[in-house]
Amino acid sequence: MSAGTEVPSVEEAAERPAAPQEVEAGSGRGAAVRGAVTRFGVRVLALGVLLGVWWLVTWLEIWKPVYVPSPQAVWHQLIRTSTVHDGVRGYSGYLLYEHLWVSVRRIALGTVIGSVLGVSVGLAVGTVPVVRLVLEPIVTFLRQLPPLAFFSLLIIWFGIDETPKIWLLVIAAFPPVAVATAAAVGGVHRDHLNAARSLGAHRLALVRHVVLPASLPEILTGIRLGAGVAYTSVVAAELVNGIPGIGGMIRDAQRYNQTDVVVLGIFTIGLTGLALDAALRALERRFAPWRGRA
What we know:
Layout: H1 10-15, H2 20-59, H3 71-82, E1 84-85, E2 88-89, H4 96-127, H5 129-144, H6 151-158, H7 162-186, H8 190-198, H9 203-232, H10 234-237, H11 246-255, H12 259-287
Antiparallel strand pairs: 1-2
């Protein structure tokens, strides 16, 4: 330290105004926190309003309880289906989490198989013109049909056990993933491909090091869509021999006009669907952090 250089005291350093960059960073973090708190508050308020309207409608008895059960009735069924009550274990011998676990396992297996097939077919359609001519109409045909249209045929082929349920969810998840992958591959900038070719990259290297990284955000979006379609199809997949399973529980409760159990199953599917979508969004941020930044 050269002579004549003054060292600021602790008090002077504390009183010195922060640098502009520090102020901007601090204000940015504060704004992000305030925005998150505001969004959370709005969502809680909206949920409270919906619950209040629901309670008011049932309290006024605008419709009979068999049509619109009260929040208390649904909560009571949540307790009953989650415990052993008067010697009865949950619903149809299974606790609520067991029904949910079986359904989630089916959805996960169907989504994984459908996603693997969808990405493979999408890559082939997007990179090989001959394959595009052959497979693109088939993928479009499957995408236009509701998955439930295949269920009767799947039961004839595979019976009423697990196999037709899994295949129905595979058929539900496959088209969105295949279409998103093919569109993403077709949208890769030609300059990137030409630059890799000029460096000596062969077809497999192009797919691995250029096409897949460039297409990954759209592929992950397609997987999210496929998982969503599979999730919405689980009730249809569990129409036949669906116990244990949330869809089977809803179907069985519908037969006996147990509307509170049906509403409980709907809420269970919806909330776990939100959790699944949040997990897939986290995977997008983890494996494609550049999305929306370039």
